[in-house]
Amino acid sequence: MTEPTRDKIIAAVPVGEAFAISQRAIWKRADVGAQSSCGIYLFEALASGIVKRRKQPIPTGFVWLYWREG
Predict the structure, then answer these.
(1) Which is it for the CA torsion 5, 49, 11, 27, positive or negative?
(2) How far apart are CA 13 and CA 51, in angstroms?
(3) Cα 52 to Cα 63: distance, rounded to the nearest angstrom
(4) What are 4-56's pLDDT values in tens digits?
(5) Which structural domain range is residue 29 located in?
(6) Are 32 and 8 in contact (CB under 8 A)?
(7) CATH code for position 42
């Protein structure tokens, strides 16, 4: 993935846990490539500490919500 694409994905991740959103919402905001590619980069950013995530229960199971610190 190119640097401008990565920058768009990071820019689409909200600041603050109270505003955390799903991978799909980040993908739609960033308007980049395939949803799976966005997920791979989010996982890499998570491993390096750029973004954080938490597991949110929903009626059909759970969803991971992502955010970054300010």
Answers:
(1) positive
(2) 8
(3) 14
(4) 888 999 999 999 999 999 999 999 999 998 999 999 999 999 999 999 999 99
(5) 3-67
(6) yes
(7) 1.10.10.10
Residue type, 2: T
Q: What is the largest CA-CA distance in the chain?
A: 37
What's the whole-model pTM score? 0.90
User: Given the structure tokens 């490539």, which residue do they identify?
Assistant: 33
Domain count, the chain: 1
3-class DSSP string for 7-66? HHHHHHCCECHHHCEEHHHHHHHHCCCCHHHHHHHHHHHHHHCCCEEEEEEECCEEEEEE
Per the structure block, which two tokens stand in for 32? Answer: 């980049």
